[in-house]
Amino acid sequence: MTAVTAKTRTADHIYATGLRNQWHPVVPSSFVAPGAMRKVTVLGEQWLLFRRSDGTLSMLADRCPHRGAPLSLGKHLGDRVACWYHGVEIETDGTVSSVPGLPGCNLEGKKLVTSLPVREVSGAVLAYFGDEQHPEPVELTLPEPLTDPDTDAILCYAEWNAPWRYGVENLLDPMHGQFLHHDSHTMFDGDITAKFRIRETDRGYFFEKTDQRGVNFDWVELCRTGVDWVDLSIPYPPSAGPGGPFGIVGMVRPVDEERCAVFFWRYRKVQGWQRDTWRFLYKTLIEQRHWDVLEQDREMLEAMPADADQQENLYQHDLGVVRLRRMYRGEAEKQATGKQPTA
C-alpha cells in the first residue's frame, strides 16, 4: 500500500478513510496476547501492535525505516522487534536500537518509526491518530458506561465490508430498528411512524423521537470526547434478568475506504449477584440474538452500493445522518488544510 503523506491527504481522502487528530478503537485487547504481535489496518494505513511479555502494549508503523519492509513479518524479541529482511531492531517507542549488519551505523539511536499513544479500555485498544500539525494526543474522556464500576459492559467486535461512515450513519438512524430489526427480541414493539428532533449537547447531539420513549430504539446520542462514540438504550423485559434498560456504546473504526470494524459494548447497570445472573443469561441466551441483529446490519450495509450516499432522496427521519455528514465533511476539510481540530 502506498504511503499517504500530508500532500496526498486531501479532504476527500480523510472523509473516506477516517478523521485524524482523535482517538480510534483498534482491536479487542485479547487480539494481542503477551509476547505477541498483530498487524492491523487503520485509516487506510498499516500498523503493528506489539505486546511485551509483561503486557505493555505499543503500536508502531508497520514499516522498517531501512528499506520499508513490514515489521509485522519480523521477530518478536521481547522488548523490541527485528525486521525479517535485514535484522534491523526497533524499540517499542520507534527507536532503532541495533543494525546487526553494520553495528554503529548512523541509524542506531534515532527514532525513525512512528509510535502511537495507546490505551486499553474495557477490553479494547484505543490509539491516537494525529497528523503532522497535531502529533500530541487530545484529551480523552471515556464513555461513562465503560468506566462506571456499577455497570457491566460486554464487548462485541466485528469487521464489515462497508465504509466506516455507513456504520456510524446506521447508528444515527433509529428508525431502521423498527423495520430491519422488527423480528428481533427487543425491537418488535412501537409505532412505525415517528417524528424526530436534534438536541444539541456540550459533547455532541441527541437524535430522538418526539412522540415515543422507552419502547424501541427511540434515541441515540453522538458523543465527541476525544473519541467518537454513540450511546443508546433499549427497554428489556423481565425475562432478560435483573438490571435496568439495556444499553449499547458503539464505536466504528475505519479500516480503509471500503471496510470498517465495529465495536459494541452491551451494558446494564447491575452489581453483585445480579451482575452474575445477567452475565449468565447473556452468554447462554441473549448474546446469539444480538449477533443475529448485527448480522442484519452487516448484510444491509455490505449490500449498499459504494455511491449509495450520492444518490438519495432524504426525509425528516434522516436529520441525524445529515447533521453527521456535515460535521465530518467540515472536519475533513479543516484537517486537509491543517487547521486546528474542533473540540
UniProtKB/TrEMBL annotation:
Domain of life: Bacteria
SUPFAM superfamilies linked: Bet v1-like, ISP domain
Pfam families (alphabetical): Aromatic_hydrox, Rieske
An MF annotation (GO) of this entry: dioxygenase activity
UniProt entry tagged with the keyword Disulfide bond: no
Keywords: 2Fe-2S, Dioxygenase, Iron, Iron-sulfur, Metal-binding, Oxidoreductase
Cell membrane keyword on record: no
Location of the Rieske domain: 23-127
Protein name per the record: Aromatic ring-hydroxylating dioxygenase subunit alpha
Organism expressing this protein natively: Streptomyces endophyticus
